[in-house]
Amino acid sequence: MDLDVAHVRAFVRAAEERHFGRAAGTLAISQQALSKRVARLESLLGVTLFQRGGNGVHLTEAGQRFLPPARRTLAAADAAVAAAVGTRRPLRVDVWGHLYAPMRTLAQIAERAGDLALGHGRDLPSVTNALLHGDIDAAFGRVHPPLHTGLTHRLVRLEPVDAVLSADHPLAAEPALRPGQLRGSLLWAPGNLDRLDFLHQFADRFDIRDRAASVNLGLAHFLEEVARDPQRFSLIPADVPLPEIPGLRTVPLVDPTPLYAWSLLWRTGDEHPGLDGLTAACATEAGRSRWLEYDPAHDWLPEPPS
User: Fold this and answer.
1) Closest to 218 (Cα-Cα) out of 89, 99, 50, 51
2) Would you say the C-alpha torsion 270, 272, 273, 278 has a positive or negative sign?
3) Quick check: 246 and 221 in contact, CB under 8 A?
4) Percent of the chain at pLDDT above 90?
């Protein structure tokens, strides 16, 4: 049985979008053309791949079984084309969580990671879509559930987190703080706390009941807001280069030290050869710089490393 790659690509995109119209748009074809390709594939296989109805489509059991090898088929086809024409494009890598400067970590391994084409930053939902659609090959940031089943991630770095607060805050003169000492202070978040998984879980774990959100206009603006109010505090990974903000104090957190988990994320089954170089470079730097040290007796993570 010979499969038409265009039919397989139409199926995979429809399975990812759960909607024929949106899937057709990403492939720059009409919805009718996409429906015909899926129908021809179903006819060839002799099974129904989608249940149609309501505002979208859902995979049948046959469709769920077919999706993983279909993704691998597309990856192999794309790799074959690249090999035939003698080109090897750079590994396209983007980041999310730009307030915490994820690109500084990638910069430390970029020279050993091979040929990279770096993006300008997205949020996690946008990164997920870009990976599933093949617009990028990998991304770097903090992974938190729920993660799409078509993606794979690998822990790269566990970074200690500091408290940032106003110099007029009652605890500003302390050489270090335990997270519980911040109970009674106002956690100032750079955006809706429900979308900021790490801050949300920190507040729940250490009973920080007073919480408020700002508008994310960049790191400098956010820190200026923290510095203006003697009751506010927030959290910043310890190695983030901070702008000079008058009246801002940075204090390490201990007993336990919160750790911010940075991970690489890529589409399951992606066979771009640059992925091996990138993951190897991350592992080398992690060993050299002790990026993955974790002691549950002294450190806190929202979830244990995997």
Assistant:
1) 99
2) negative
3) no
4) 63
Helix (H, G, I), strand (E, B) or coil at 60: coil
Class of residue 119 by CB neighbours under 10 A (exposed 0-12, middle 13-18, buried 19+): middle
Q: What is the pLDDT of residues 126-159, one digit of tens each?
A: 899 889 888 899 999 999 888 888 899 999 999 9
pTM above 0.85, yes or no: no
Phi, psi of 262 (to 5 degrees): -100, 135
Q: Name residues of the chain where pLDDT drops below 50.
A: 306
**Tokens 């201990």 label which residue?**
254
pLDDT digits (tens, 9 = 90+) for 220-264: 999 999 999 999 999 999 999 999 999 999 999 999 999 999 999
Following CA atoms 12, 40, 79, 282 in sequence, which dihedral angle do they give, to the nearest 10 degrees? Answer: 10
**What's the N-to-C CA distance of the chain in angstroms?**
40
Nearest to 291 by CA among 264, 256, 254: 264
Tokens of 73: 């088929």
For residue 170, give both structure tokens: 């009652």
Enumerate the β-bridge partners of residue 163.
235, 251
